[in-house]
Design a protein that fits this description.
CATH topology: DNA polymerase, domain 1
CATH superfamily: Flavinator of succinate dehydrogenase
Order of helices and strands: HHHHH
CATH class: Mainly Alpha
Radius of gyration: 13 Å
């Protein structure tokens, strides 16, 4: 069990195929390290991403490559303005998707 279950009160709708493809394409990064865990993220969670997850992923993808890598590797934590439940959830999903050495 990965701990990420949809809200039982009002779940966000799942992404349609076109939106998922666009999110995946926009998530390509300049650092190979980022691309590796992002690819694992989509392999693992792509089929179950919601519109809320997509918004959170977009916010994370707006970060500079090195800042994103530092977050995923737990070298830093989210800035206060980004500490929303949705962004924290997607960040944890990204962290779980890190390729293992």
């Amino acid at each position: 069990m990965n701990g990420f279950t949809p809200s039982q009160t009002c779940p966000a709708p799942l992404l349609d195929e076109k939106s998922l493809h666009m999110l995946h394409w926009r998530s390509r990064r300049g650092l190979l390290e980022n691309d590796l865990f992002i690819e694992k993220f989509f392999e693992r969670y792509g089929h179950s991403l919601t519109t809320s997850d997509a918004d959170a992923m977009t916010a994370l993808m707006n970060l500079a490559d090195n800042d994103l890598l530092d977050l995923v590797l737990r070298r830093t934590e989210l800035q206060e303005a980004m500490q929303t439940p949705a962004i924290q959830k997607v960040l944890e999903m990204l962290r779980e998707s890190r390729p293992q050495s």
